[in-house]
Amino acid sequence: MNGLEASGPATAAPHADPDGDPFLRTRFAIPTPPVTFLRRERLVHHLDQALLTPLTMVNGAAGAGKTLLVADWTETRGEPVAWLTAEADQGCGMFWAYLLQSLRAAGVPLSAAVGFPAGASLVDRTLLARLAAELSERDRPVVVVLDEYDRVTGPEIAEQLEFVLHHSGRGMRLLLVTRTEPLLPLHRYRAAGAMTEIRDAELAFTPEEAATLLAAHGLRLPVHTARSLVERTRGWAAGLRLCALAAQGSPDPETYLKEFEADRTTVADFLLAEVLKRQSPETQDLLLRVSVLERFCPELADALTVSGDAASILAALHRENAFVEDLGHAWYRLHPLFGEILHAHLRVWSPGLEPELHRRAAAWLRRSGSLAESLAHGAAAGDWEFTAGALVEELAIGRLFTGLRRDDLADLFARMGPEATGPATDLVRAARDLSRGDLERGQTHLRLAERSLAGERLPTEGAAPGQVAARLSCALLETLAARLTGSPERAERAVETAGELQERMPAPLLDEHPELTALLMTHLGSARLWAGRFDDARAALAVVAGCSGEASTALPRGESLEHLALIDYLNGWLGRAERKALAAQKTAERFGLPPGAGSGLGPLVLAAVAVERNELEQARSLLDAAADPHRAMRDPVTEAGRSIATARLLLAGGHSQAALAAAEPTVAADVASPWAAGHTALVASAVHLAEGRPEEAAELLRAVPPGQVACTVAAARAQLAAGRPAAAIDLLDGLRPLGRIGPAVTVRASLVRAEAAFTAGDLTASRRLVLQALHTARRERLRLPFIDAGPWIRPLLGLVPLRGAAAGWLMPGQSPDEATPRPHDRPAEPLVEELSGRELDVLRRLARMMSTEEIAADLYVSVNTVKTHLKSVYRKLAVSRRHDAVRRARELRLL
Questions:
Q1: Domain that holds residue 295
Q2: Most Cβ neighbours (<10 Å): which of 62, 599, 607, 672?
Q3: Contacts for 396 with CB less than 8 Å, ≥ 6 apart
Q4: Residue 322 resides in a domain
Q5: If residue 178 lies in a helix (H) or strand (E), which one and from where to where?
Q6: Residue 754 in contact with residue 770, Cβ under 8 Å?
Q7: How far apart are CA 779 and CA 781, in angstroms?
């Protein structure tokens, strides 16, 4: 009998397959979900779309819950579903015989005219045509579920199935449950919107669903426990159920689910049997070897296996949903649990191989430019000379101080033992110790590295930059050590050396590590600031504060802004100091820098500013926040800033002796700082004045290094208190001009002059000077100088127009809204470069809507000069139009 005749009409439905064996009814049986099965309505709703599209595919890994999901969904249908569980290596005749029988078992009436396959491997096209024709005439579509369709590998079956599906029209809805992409022309169905898909990502349990599933197993655990389990299992259904079953027998289920060892559970048995052992020996070897990697590409896998065909193996594993996830761009990773299990079995089956695999991975990743991963594998291999050498030679030692992964790097190198030797390992130890504030050990390791490098010749031009990078790393650490020890000249020499070495480094490598220059300039700026060289310090710090917003430079950028804020505070510009300190804070928040990163100078400056405004509770809160016990790195500038803020707060609160004790910085330095010494003298002199000893106060201030304007003003006040007004005025007259000195100093100078005039009986001059001080102080909300002035000023503040100038911000009875700075009063970004006096003149006239010609005439300058000033104003305010310049200036309280 030929195939055509056998496929013709039959008189009755067959009761045996083409080989004459009875049909296996288990292949038509819809699985029954267990009592602990969790129906997830979101997936049921999605499957309901199967009635709207000809083709539906539920595609997921082994144990993803595909079959139970579809089986449960069939119950919600309320109508018969033709179910067939596919088998491997069956011919097309056998496949269609079983499919026809599944339709009949579901109650779908098929006429005898449809026929029956001639043999296990044969099916006539006319049978398929008759089947499609009968299905197309149905009033309601029949749903056909083909479970485990990934077992069907014959392309002819896929072609025949697509033929029937296409010509059945609305009469058939095909639902495939599979681990792999079927050979059907899926692209056509997707393009036409004729396909419903549910994949692994959607099949994965959410933390809330996992918590409900655990509860169904009698485990009522918090959602955060379920969330950690979902992260570890990637929401894999079988893994969650197996873990839940295992946890039922544990006395502490919550701890078990947090700490279970995947390789010693039924999860391991499932994955090994269902995934690993189904692969060829070559594929099993590849999976075991790549288990040491977080992610991998074919080339990296080949480096670990030396086989050369990883690309095809990985692509096939991904297609088969064999727990190999595609990350895109030809990169893959193992499912976390699968990776854990394979890793554990690698150690058992191939002891001693793991370090070699890590070493190969480290070398390949370094060549490919993936430094962070290379370091991790080098450390895992225990090859510290390679790991430290890679960090130093790639010019990345600055990453131990800055960037978002500095804590990870510190933890990584914390495992490095004393047996690792060489310049690179000594440099890493020095960096690690200096970052933790261990100055003595850090400098010891730095000297060891320098001595090792001193015996090596610098490579010639064009040679490998490894030695140059090591010397450049030395220079960076030397600059940091100079900052921490308060040694400005040492910092200058180190930065000069670094500049010479940078010229010998490849430009692309330098460009990859902008944090190097940022750290150098920040440390240099801090050392210069300590020495009182404010202009030089500002020049170095402004370079960093104005650099591009990369994560690797966020920390030095913030520190530079904080140091610039301190310079402004010391010069008496409270508003500028506040804006820069707040900008530093926002930089840390924007890049998510960890708590304790940097020196913590910003909150100290803000606290000192709050004291000057007599906002003592705010100052106390800021100081408490700045007292971070985890902040290890302490440099003289920051500790002096802490002393200033703490001592002034105590002094303002009337705690004189405590203020004296807090006035001295607690960190020793190689050279004395003039402004730190001046600060100590200011506090001590204020205590003497408060206790009625003006002569002692004046004598104390005579020993202050020259150039400390605030100390000169305080000395004038002491002279006035000692009854020598002429000497006080002489001291103040010697300070002119005060163009670069801010209101916190000039207001105090005006009040000393006002008190001298008041004492001499010149009330007109005294009122004029107090009014001038009020107008200057109002913009900065500067209150403390008026409180410290003494009782003589109180009657004057009640006079008109002084009362109006003091109302709302200085006088008692002001509302909180008037006394407290509002959010819109604090601009988001600072002016790193301040406007000149002439630029401010132009800006004020711009605000009065004057034209360029009118401004030129009013200032007696040329129009071109005005245009030049305008360009500079726009650049410094980061705007491009007049209106924006005026608005920005008002935000910054420049107008």
A1: 261-356
A2: 607
A3: 371, 513
A4: yes
A5: strand 172-178
A6: yes
A7: 6
Is 128 within 8 Å of 13 (Cβ atoms)? no
How far apart are alpha carbons 551 and 404 in whole angstroms? 7
Q: How far is CA 636 from the centre of its chain?
A: 30
CA 72/CA 51 separation, integer angstroms = 16
74 and 184 within one domain: yes
Q: What is the pLDDT of residue 386?
A: 96
Q: Where are the alpha helices (DSSP H) in 760-827?
A: 763-780, 784-788, 794-797, 802-806, 816-819
Taking alpha carbons only, the member of 488, 518, 516 closest to residue 502 is 516
Domain end, chosen from 260, 282, 297, is at: 260
The CATH number given to whatever domain includes residue 9 is 3.40.50.300
749 touches 730 (CB < 8 A): no
Dihedral (CA of 290, 292, 295, 301) sign? negative
Q: Which residue type occupies 342?
A: L
Q: How far apart are CA 311 and CA 648, in angstroms?
A: 68
- Beta pairing, strands 324-328 & 331-334: antiparallel
Q: Are residues 153 and 248 in the same domain?
A: no
Residues 488/458, Cβ–Cβ less than 8 Å = no
Tell me phi and psi for residue 590, to 5 degrees: -60, -40
What whole-number distance in Å separates Cα of residue 821 and Cα of residue 805?
Answer: 18
What is the Cα–Cα distance from 438 to 425, expressed in whole angstroms?
Answer: 17
pLDDT on residue 1: 34
Nearest by Cα to 273 from 58, 34, 62 = 62
pLDDT bin (cut points 50, 70, 90) of residue 225 is: confident
State pLDDT tens for residues 480-519.
999 999 999 999 999 999 999 999 999 999 999 999 999 9
Is residue 559 a contact partner of residue 525, using CB atoms and an 8 Å limit?
Answer: no
Interatomic CA distance for residues 316 and 196, integer angstroms: 23
Nearest to 520 by CA among 465, 470, 571, 479: 479
Q: Is 192 found in the same domain as 215?
A: no
